[in-house]
Fold this sequence. Notes:
66% of the residues lie in helices and 9% in strands. It is mainly alpha-helical. Helix 6 packs antiparallel against helix 8.
Amino acid sequence: MSLRYALCALLTSQPMTGYDVYKHFEQSVGYVWHAPDSQIYPELRRMEADGLITGKDERWGTKGTKKRYSITPSGEQAFRAWMNETLDYPRERNPISLKTAYLEWASPEAARAQMRAHIEHYAALIIVWQDMIDAIHDHSNPVLAKRLENYPESEWPRIEGYKALAYEGMIERAQAEVRWAKRALTVIDDLA
């Protein structure tokens, strides 16, 4: 259900076509909630059917049309209600922990390769997320820049601060994953 609210969050910045939603999703919300276009477009249609957003057909090219979506007052109310609820935490599915619990079945070389891949994966994400924090602070993220146009400058530190906080948390978790995987390399060497 969080995809619905991720889309609401995005549409609170400005009306967008389905394609724009997908493109901007990847540049903003997509860093904290992954969803392919095969999930986004059907969810937009369900949200429209539920009255959370409205879609208006616009001419596109010489013969085509595209739909521009806007969040409705009901959509804003549902989004605000969701924001004010405490999350129910789902049970985790953590493939690296599952795999690590049974590394005795892997060769030491394969176990080391897995941990090095884990380190590389999270190290790359740290760079991406730090770039996102920088884009939040310098307003070079187009979705954030558009959102800020709708608010007085006195509100900007709060808007930026919460967005940066989300990425800072992701960076801290990624740094913990890197530390853990480096420790795992030592354990693999000790147990090999």
